[in-house]
Write a structure and sequence with these properties.
The complex is a heterotrimer of chains A (231), B (284) and C (324). With 231 residues, chain A is an alpha/beta fold. Chain A contains eight helices and nine strands. Chain A has a six-stranded mixed β-sheet, sandwiched between helices. In chain A, strands 2-1-4 form a three-stranded antiparallel β-sheet, covered by helices on one side. The C terminus of chain A is likely disordered. Chain B has one domain: ABC transporter involved in vitamin B12 uptake, BtuC, CATH 1.10.3470. Helices cover 76% and strands 3% of the residues of chain B. Classes of the chains: A alpha/beta (231), B mainly alpha (284), C mainly alpha (324).
Chain lengths: 231, 284, 324
């Protein structure tokens, strides 16, 4: 349902994406991993239509919604208003479906989004994206700065969403073990190019990927939240 | 005591019109970070147009409403130019709106000439707290309060109003959820046009307006908006009332020519006292 | 940042400026244009380096003019002394009001300076010691020692001399230690602060400097007119200075001159057109306001760096064939 073909994105003279191709089937979960500055966020923004392509193409059958890096709340507005605005593009103001899916948000409805914890904000960000009834959910840094327990809970919600609603997910994730665990397929980006792609299980065995991403960390599953500072 | 009450009541009604113009500054600044120098010009256009329409036998109410709506369109046009290309610095936009206010002056002289205009308003007086008050001035106060309530409800209760607030709160996230931030900016300018126009048709019957009143109107409105840090409609209302009353008391007990002086001084003091908060807000 | 124009160009401009008063029969336009250039040179520095717009530069012109008016008529000071005193008084006034005022930024400072101008105007018209409702008239002609100016022409040269002094000192200041601090401001204030630049004082310094230039222009105006009242300094004139500064190019030494000349000539031409017989009396203000507005908007949206920097970079670009 999502076809990215030979996509090139430039910021002035700098090339952020240099001929990236990636295809997603409906209901598929794909992880996008790679070092800082590899172009993962740029790819998501190109998919969401926020950055123009210099050449190549992005086509998507269905709606896309993004959970942006840094969660990007409307801080002085209530959770409810944040959610309602998520449905702006399709004029969807009915919260019930999202509140069913993320019941924790029910008691936070009247709270100001800027006052919430990081995990709560991430849940609002996911809820806000879901208000657009997306066929593809593009998530930028799900685990960044969050406690492992919170991340596990969010991951569980995403699994359910994918299984129950058939929502496709494109996940940018620093925490490679979480990415492999959640998404059956992974795409490795480096310096604006795809350097490896395939089933997550195979990539996890691959020596190159192991060295690049598990390297010194040793124990899979440990959080690497401190490795990237949100812009 | 009666003297004091007279100054108080006239000050409040005068301050209401400052607040109404100030609310236009607030609406635009909240959404676009631009200070719209042409805010005073909207009031003059509305006053002139209402006067023309009334002379053309359009009934009261209809004529004023039409004039106010035209100002909404003018506001959107001003916004379209002021928002310029993407990435135009707000301070540059301020000077662009200064240029626009000059163009509006040219248009006003072309269409209506240079003489001050005062369309007919409500006639007669009522007695309030033992003070004689023109009905028209009471109308100003009443409509101002209603307008502020409407603006507050619009921003907090309606879907469109929330989208406007969101554009101000986090433009990036607003674009992400599909809000056209630029169009919201235009809408804010149109709303400012309506609010400015409303002030114009209300004030002009008691105080004649000419093409050159724009500066005084803009300054008094800006001064009121400064009380609210250019972002809070509620505190702008309070600011307008304080300025109006302070001005009337000065004019009454000291000297009429110090009236604006006091307003300007108050504005400067508040701006300087709160400069730290302002810097933080601008940087956001 | 300040690209030096070719020596030839400067010499040609200077010669033309010196010949012009000999050819012109009425010096009023010439004097006003040159004095505007003096004011705008200072404003251009303030806007270009400190990044702050002043919508009330006329306040300092007024202080300078008032120094001359009161100094000559009330205290009997010699003309040369008050001429030199005027920029000092204006600069000191700016230092005093600048301390609190420059805590404001951006929009707030723009409105703050406008408020300052209006307050100066009110003070002038309502305090009798400052002229009051009738203003100060009877300012004696300028003169040094036994020599006294009897016609308009010497004022043209006096104005030119002031402009020369202002341009020369601007060039010196930009290259000085203070100039480096000033240029540091035009980048990021925070960065300048961490590099040890006293941001607050530097801003006040630029503000005072621009005020001193304005005061000097005001002084010459007072001798030339020779009458000073609150109405001599309408806000529209202060807005015109901003237009000239923007049109010429901010933060360049020659931008003020180019902006003042271009805008003045344009307005004068339109003025001539609009005062043609057969046109309604409202044509003049209509054309004037429309011209101000159009020039400002077009300059800001399409030539945001102003004439001098744009032309300068064009000139540099062509022979090299690559963007500068």
């Amino acid at each position: 349902m999502l076809r990215i073909d030979d996509l090139v994105v430039r910021y002035g003279a700098a090339v952020a994406l240099d001929g990236v191709s990636l295809h997603l089937d409906a209901g598929e979960m794909v992880a996008l991993v790679g070092p800082n500055g590899a172009g993962k966020s740029t790819l998501l923004n190109a998919v969401s239509g926020l950055v123009p392509a210099a050449s190549g193409s992005v086509t998507c059958e269905g709606r896309i919604a993004q959970v942006p890096e840094g969660r990007q709340m409307f801080p002085d507005m209530t959770v409810e208003d944040n959610l309602v605005l998520g449905g702006w593009s399709i004029r969807n103001r009915d919260l019930s479906e999202v509140l069913d899916l993320l019941p924790d948000l029910v008691r936070l409805r009247k709270a100001k989004a800027g006052r919430l914890s990081g995990g709560q904000q991430q849940m609002v960000a996911i809820g806000r994206a879901l208000m657009a009834k997306p066929d593809l959910l593009a998530i930028d840094e799900l685990s960044l700065g969050l406690a492992p327990l919170v991340v596990a809970e969010l991951a569980e919600h995403l699994r359910f969403l994918n299984r129950d609603r058939g929502t496709a997910i494109l996940l940018v994730e620093q925490e490679v073990s979480l990415a492999f665990d959640l998404c059956p397929r992974t795409c490795v980006l480096e310096a604006g190019r795809v350097v490896a792609a395939g089933p997550s299980a195979e990539l996890a065995e691959s020596e190159a990927v192991r060295r690049a991403y598990f390297g010194d960390l040793g124990v899979a599953g440990e959080l690497r939240a401190d490795t990237e500072v949100p812009a | 005591m009666k003297e004091f009450l007279t100054y108080l009541v006239t000050g409040i009604t005068l301050g209401a019109s400052f607040a109404l113009i100030g609310s236009g500054f607030v609406v635009v600044h909240r959404v676009t970070r631009i200070v719209n120098f042409a805010q005073g010009s909207f009031a003059i256009i509305a006053a002139m147009m209402a006067a023309s329409l009334l002379r053309g036998r359009l009934p009261h109410g209809l004529a004023e409403a039409a004039a106010v709506l035209v100002c909404g369109v003018v506001g959107a046009v001003v916004g379209w130019v002021a928002l310029g290309r993407r990435g135009t610095h707000p301070l540059i936009s301020l000077i662009v709106t200064l240029g626009l206010s000059m163009l509006v002056s040219a248009a006003i002289i072309l269409l209506w000439g240079q003489d001050p205009v005062s369309p007919p308003g409500l006639r007669g007086h009522v007695t309030l707290l033992g003070v004689d008050v023109e009905r028209q001035r009471l109308l100003v106060l009443l409509v101002t309060l209603l307008a502020f309530a409407a603006v507050a409800l619009f921003f907090s209760r309606t879907y469109l109003g929330k989208a406007l607030t969101a554009s101000a709160s986090n433009p990036y996230a607003a674009r992400l959820v599909g809000i056209d931030v630029r169009r919201m900016g235009l809408l804010a300018f149109a709303l400012a046009g309506v609010l400015g126009g409303l002030a114009g048709v209300l004030v002009a019957p008691s105080n004649a307006l000419s093409f050159s009143s724009d500066l005084a109107l803009a300054l008094s409105g800006f001064a009121a908006a400064v009380f609210g840090g250019l972002s809070s409609p509620g505190r702008t209302l309070v600011g307008g009332l304080v300025l109006g009353v302070a001005g009337q008391l000065t004019a009454g007990y000291l000297n009429g020519s110090y009236q604006t002086e006091v307003a300007l001084l108050l504005m400067l003091l508040i701006m300087i006292a709160r400069s730290r908060t302002f810097v933080a807000e601008e940087a956001k | 940042m300040t690209r030096r124009p070719s020596t030839l160009l400067v010499v040609v401009a200077a010669v033309a400026a010196c010949i012009a008063p000999l050819v012109l029969s009425d010096q009023t336009f010439f004097v006003h244009t040159v004095l505007a250039a003096v004011v705008v040179s200072g404003l251009s520095m303030l806007m270009g380096y400190a990044g702050q717009a002043s919508l009330g530069q006329g306040a300092f012109v007024a202080v300078g003019a008032l120094t001359v008016a009161l100094g000559t008529t009330r205290w009997g000071l010699p003309p040369l002394v008050v001429l030199l005193l005027a920029p000092l008084v204006a600069g000191m006034f700016a230092t005093v009001v600048g301390r609190p005022l420059l805590r404001l930024q951006g929009h707030y400072l723009a409105f703050g300076t406008l408020a300052l101008l209006l307050m100066v105007q009110t003070a002038m018209s309502s305090i009798d010691a400052l002229g009051g409702a009738y203003g100060v008239s009877g300012i004696p002609a300028f003169g040094v020692g036994g020599w006294t100016v009897t016609d308009q022409r010497p004022y043209a040269y006096l104005a030119l001399a002031c402009l020369a002094v202002v341009l020369w000192s601007s060039a010196r200041i930009v290259d000085s230690r203070f100039g480096r601090a000033m240029r540091a401001l035009s980048g990021s204030e925070t960065a300048a602060e961490s590099a040890g630049v006293p941001v607050g004082w530097t801003k006040v310094g630029v503000f005072a400097l621009s005020a001193a230039f304005a005061g000097l222009a005001g002084a010459v105006t007072a001798f030339f007119t020779p009458y000073v009242s609150a109405d001599s300094f309408p806000p529209l004139e202060s807005f015109t200075y901003v237009i000239m500064a923007v049109v010429g190019g901010l933060g360049t030494i020659w931008g003020g001159v180019v902006g003042a000349v271009v805008v003045s000539v344009l307005l004068q031409a339109l003025n001539t057109v609009s005062s043609q017989p057969g046109l309604p009396p409202t044509a003049a203000p209509i054309i004037q306001y429309a011209a101000y507005g159009t020039v400002l908007i077009i300059a800001l949206l399409f030539l945001p760096r102003g004439i001098v920097p744009s032309v300068g970079s064009l000139r540099l670009r062509r022979p090299q064939g690559s963007p500068a």
